[in-house]
Amino acid sequence: MKFLNSVLALGVATTIAACSESGASTAETRTAPPALSTDQRNSTWYRDAQSRLQQASQRQIDNTPGAAKNIILFVGDGMGISTVTAARILAGQQQGRTGEEYQLSFEQMPFAGLIKTYNTNQQTSDSAGTASALMTGVKTKAGVLNVDETVARGDCKAGLEHPLTTALDLAELHGKRTGIISTARITHATPASTYAKVPERGWEYQAPEGCRDIAAQLVEMDRGDGIDVILGGGRRAFIPQSVTDLEGEKGKRTDGRNLVQEWKNRYGAAATYIEDEKGFKAVDAAKTDKLLGLFQPSHMRYESDRENDKAGEPSLSEMTAKGLELVQKGEDGYFMLVEGGRIDHGHHAGNAYNALTDAVEFAKAVQVAMDNTSTEDTLIIVTADHSHAFTMAGYPTRGNPILGKVIGNDEHGAPQDAPQLAADGKPYTTLGYANGAGFADLGDETNSDARRDAPAHSGRVDLTEIDTTKPGFYQESLVPTGSETHGGEDVGIWARGPGSHLLTGTNEQNYVFHVMVRSGGLLD
Ligand SMILES: [Zn+2]
What are the boundaries of the region Disordered (predicted)? Predict the structure, then answer.
């Protein structure tokens, strides 16, 4: 402190001398900079920032390679920056606050940065190319999983010749326990990026002669002893067309194989297969070594729609808690991927309600991991694969409902008592989409997939009589497209634990793999 003071004093003296010499000012006429007023110092903004600064300046950095015995990678599918901001406000408002000041679980992590998400052949990326970048350390084309960029999409032979090894492969080869958890189909791009190598992400249950489909690659995985915990949707890719599941839907496999049975045969008594909430609740972690849970024929339900499920299914945070219990059984650490898979689907439907409520649940799942791991030996990374054409705009007053219409401030900065009107005389929402199927009002409908049956409607609508905060409200869009698209701007990355400081700055998406490998000692 003494040293710092003397440096400052020297700096001031030098400045004054320089000014005198130039004749622009003299030491005698200069007044000292005004001290901070008591009001300024006592402001909660001032005090909160001071305590934040105190914490940040005491931060210890563990730079030792291999110090992260455990790694958990959280991917919010489609969780761009505007989604994080809006989800943060929604979460805060659900707790009765104004919302803007709230912090989601991962926003409390010490390190954050930006990630560039483009694919080798696409400016705005898809989830297969981006997930491959995260998991293998090299970027590749859109639509392919863990084959390099020389492979043409859909080229079976070239795909077999150019496979890429994943971080999960490396963790298995190190004898670590592994887990993959998603609210999407477990054969969908992000979860599949941990284990599958295919030149076409659509080969979830069927592939051309000579190539293996994604579901088959999962149950046959030969790195280590295969993945220990698998929880998500996508049951239909594992059962033949001749079999009807407990929710009344037929399987999709045309080769007659029942991969659930094959998986059970492979692992025997220590393995548990579950497909509903009851089965999930009954899992005894102490007695279960391998766990396969397929809770839906296709994707799992949106969090806001979960109670409508026939057979019942766990939430993302519940699956994360269970997954952790199981992977933490090993001596040699673990690697786990957790995906909030349906944030993306809510956005594609043009429904901010489900995108945001799923993002809030995703943040809850991260909290579970933060509460049940140590910053000493566990690297937790939270990021998104890509963004969406989702905007937060207008000048709503502080605390305005994030899903509401824009109510602004008057000329004195106080909130007005009615929504503002655009140049067309109609009110407008804070949240909107640059493209997509646009406006629809499905009232209390909590399943965004229902939007597919309603007509597309680009452009403006008179929202005066419509409650835009309801689950079934679909925001207006400018450019009419069947489905709202991904966004090409950077996404955020947040991290804590050994090596987390390496994820600051602006980096290419494939860099994340390199941090995981160094921090986890996965190539040592
Ligand atoms: Zn998407």
Answer: 22-41
